[in-house]
């Protein structure tokens, strides 16, 4: 909250301008998605989904790599629609619930211990990877979009569907790279026999039966969730197919939809008790206001870096990138963020690095998104240390993994992520974000606007 009083006191920005950074369409997008995530958690929908996915991937016989794939895929899917940290908080207990069937300590066989490590690492990293694919998955994507709108207000904003067209294929590639790494490191040939003695499909089926049939409240929350995703995906599709948002002359944003669908949860009855609604403010006590304020601070600082001229000073330290060839732009920007993010939070890295990359794009005469997107995504490659991001801490505190496990798995995963981004950004990214459309003139016009 420091920018709210420091920026006006030091003459960087007025109090009204700073306050607007803490509640715009992007913050509304987060607020609505958080309320929906609390509803999913309250009605235990995430546990039902996890058990069904695990049972589905179990097969007729226990196959540890396939079972691991199911657990990781569930974590990734849930993280696509909510922030990484709440997704990790929801999924790690589900994962540890499955692992509780295995012996611990000296009684556990090496193959069992390795599989436990694979599950916790898989959930931890899958949550981070899933967050890359949608705007609501992580604060980094939201900060990127907010900076794009702040620095280039006259350009087409990055919509939910636009980001999904690029983020989802990237996340899928990195996800399967992660799964392959975990299988090679932690799923030995004898693991199926060792695990079969403790984990049976009947156990999963029994846990699912204990949840009982889906209630009216669960069905309504899922319906609300599905409608929200459909509205997000169809609000703005392409230039030729504008989507339903065109009916409202561009006044409706993704945050509008998010808050509207969250509000419906306070209106629809749960049918559990007379007069009870699907959500009320008592159920919202766990709302992550700290993340909401953190995002607002990120937007405010990014704007302060721009208006104060600090970005011009700091970008001089990245002069060595100006002589880089075109195809090296994405990997270099990604590597810078991927290195810094191990020692600071993902959001802080994005807030610091992306404004510098915008200034650098001006000097290099390239489209800003060719640097901004790799810089933001690189900030999410925080795979080496527990303290790099809160979701890593959630997995680390289970006691199943060590820092060495994270480094051994996270380093090749980080390399795979940088490689995937280096391939997709100059290809798929150019098409999705239209970065080849007169980019030199585009940079010239917007750089003038930045200076003004």
Automatic annotation (TrEMBL):
Location relative to the cell: Membrane
GO cellular component: plasma membrane
Keyword Transmembrane: yes
Principal cellular location given in the protein's record: membrane
Alphabetical keyword list: Membrane, Transmembrane, Transmembrane helix
Pfam families assigned: Na_sulph_symp (PF00939)
Topology in the lipid bilayer: Multi-pass membrane protein
Species per Swiss-Prot/TrEMBL record: Dioscorea zingiberensis
InterPro entries: SLC13A/DASS
Signal sequence residues: none
Annotated PANTHER family: SOLUTE CARRIER FAMILY 13 MEMBER, SOLUTE CARRIER FAMILY 13 MEMBER 2
Protein name per the record: Tonoplast dicarboxylate transporter
GO molecular function, one term: malate transmembrane transporter activity
Transmembrane segments: 25-45, 66-82, 88-106, 118-143, 163-187, 208-234, 246-267, 287-305, 325-345, 366-385, 415-433
């Amino acid at each position: 909250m420091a920018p709210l009083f420091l920026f006006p006191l030091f003459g960087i920005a007025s109090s009204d301008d700073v306050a607007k950074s803490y509640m715009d369409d992007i913050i509304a997008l987060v607020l609505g998605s958080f309320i929906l995530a609390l509803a999913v958690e309250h009605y235990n929908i995430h546990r039902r989904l996890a058990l069904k996915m695990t049972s589905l991937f179990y097969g007729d016989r226990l196959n540890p790599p396939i079972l691991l794939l199911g657990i990781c895929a569930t974590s990734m899917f849930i993280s696509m629609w909510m922030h990484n940290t709440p997704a990790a908080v929801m999924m790690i207990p589900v994962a540890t619930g499955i692992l509780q069937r295995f012996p611990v300590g000296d009684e556990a066989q090496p193959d069992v211990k390795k599989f436990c490590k694979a599950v916790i690492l898989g959930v931890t990293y899958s949550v981070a990877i899933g967050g890359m694919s949608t705007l609501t998955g992580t604060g980094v994507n939201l900060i990127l979009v907010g900076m794009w709108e702040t620095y280039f207000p006259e350009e087409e904003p990055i919509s939910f569907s636009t980001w999904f067209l690029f983020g989802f294929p990237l996340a899928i590639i990195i996800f399967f790279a992660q799964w392959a790494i975990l299988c090679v490191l932690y799923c030995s040939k004898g693991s199926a026999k060792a695990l079969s003695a403790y984990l049976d499909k009947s156990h999963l089926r029994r846990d699912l039966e204990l949840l009982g049939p889906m209630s009216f409240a669960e069905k309504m929350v899922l319906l609300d969730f599905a409608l929200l995703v459909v509205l997000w995906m169809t609000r703005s599709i392409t230039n030729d197919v504008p989507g339903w948002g065109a009916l409202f002359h561009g006044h409706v944003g993704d945050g509008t939809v998010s808050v509207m669908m969250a509000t419906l949860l306070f209106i629809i009855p749960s049918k559990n008790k007379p007069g009870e609604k699907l959500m009320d403010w008592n159920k919202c006590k766990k709302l992550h206001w700290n993340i909401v304020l953190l995002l607002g601070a990120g937007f405010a600082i990014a704007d302060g870096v721009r208006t104060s001229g600090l970005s011009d000073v700091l970008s001089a330290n990245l002069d060595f990138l100006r002589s880089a060839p075109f195809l090296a732009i994405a990997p270099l920007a990604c590597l810078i963020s991927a290195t810094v993010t191990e020692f600071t939070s993902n959001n802080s890295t994005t807030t610091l690095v992306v404004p510098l990359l915008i200034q650098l794009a001006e000097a290099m005469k390239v489209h800003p998104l060719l640097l901004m997107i790799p810089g933001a995504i690189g900030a999410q490659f925080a795979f080496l240390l527990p303290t790099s991001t809160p979701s890593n801490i959630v997995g680390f505190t289970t006691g199943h993994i060590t820092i060495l496990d994270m480094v051994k798995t996270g380093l090749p995963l980080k390399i795979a992520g940088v490689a995937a981004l280096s391939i997709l950004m100059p290809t798929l990214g150019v098409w999705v974000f239209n970065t080849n459309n007169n980019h030199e003139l585009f940079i010239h016009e917007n750089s003038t606007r930045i200076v003004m």
